[in-house]
Amino acid sequence: MARPVVAERRRRSALLCLLFTALAQTATAQGLAGSFEQLQVLVKPGDTVTVVDGTGVETKGKIAELSRSTLALLTEGTRRELGENDVRTIKQLRTDSLANGALFGAAGGAAFATTALIIFADEGLDASEVVTVLGVYAAIGTGIGVGVDALIRRQHLIYQRQPTSGPHVSVAPWLTGQRKGLLVTLRF
Questions:
Q1: Number of helices followed by number of strands (H, E) in the chain
Q2: Are 63 and 45 in contact (CB under 8 A)?
Q3: Of 21, 29, 100, 148, which is least packed with CB atoms within 10 Å of its CB?
């Protein structure tokens, strides 16, 4: 009777891991704002961004001020005011998502452990020892993968002007102090 209970717990654990992995991938895709109001959730004054205006000119600078309709950018000591309709895209230097590093690291660690287990198959390891070895090396690989990803920094698109034709609904995370929720914007 104890064996089916253990198998059921393992199956539940595997399903939970799969669910958390899927949720982590979904969470990483939520960082694109379609309005300055949504952008206020992602950046703050003092952050360095790269702005592409309506004419295609790229400008790098620090955010001096950001409101629902305007962005004030400090570039080489000069303040430049941009309306929401004047900005095509905004990018910011950010660290890479840690989720893919964790996934690739876990796979690499498990592959290494599998190779080692095949080489030392004559040692007569039981199933629990094999699972332990796989788990330990997958965990080590996960740590290495997350560490490598933490070192990777690249430009991420955080704002893209929405097309003005037709109605548009956008949803973004809303995190301020003690409050957490969603910001839903409906445009006509």
A1: 4, 8
A2: yes
A3: 29
Tens-digit pLDDT profile for residues 23-66: 443 344 447 888 999 999 999 999 999 999 988 899 999 999 99
- Answer with the residue of higher pLDDT: 9 or 100: 100
Q: Report pLDDT for 164.
A: 62
Q: What are phi and psi of 4, to 5 degrees?
A: -65, -35
Nearest CA to 71 among 95, 47, 55? 47
| Cα distance between residue 150 and residue 133, in whole Å | 26
Contact 72, 63 (CB under 8 A): yes
What is the separation of C-alpha 9 from the centre of its chain, rounded to a whole number of angstroms? 30
Distance CA 15, CA 8 (A): 11
Q: How many CA atoms lie within 13 A of 96 on its CB side?
A: 15
Span 133-167, pLDDT tens digits:
889 999 999 999 999 888 888 888 999 987 666 66
Q: Would you say 17 and 31 are in contact if contact means Cβ atoms under 8 Å apart?
A: no
| pLDDT computed for residue 11 by the predictor | 58
Residue 130 amino acid letter: V
Instruction: Choose among 133, 131, 139, 152: nearest CA to 102.
Output: 139
Determine the Cα–Cα distance for residues 48 and 124; give it in Å rounded to an integer.
Answer: 58
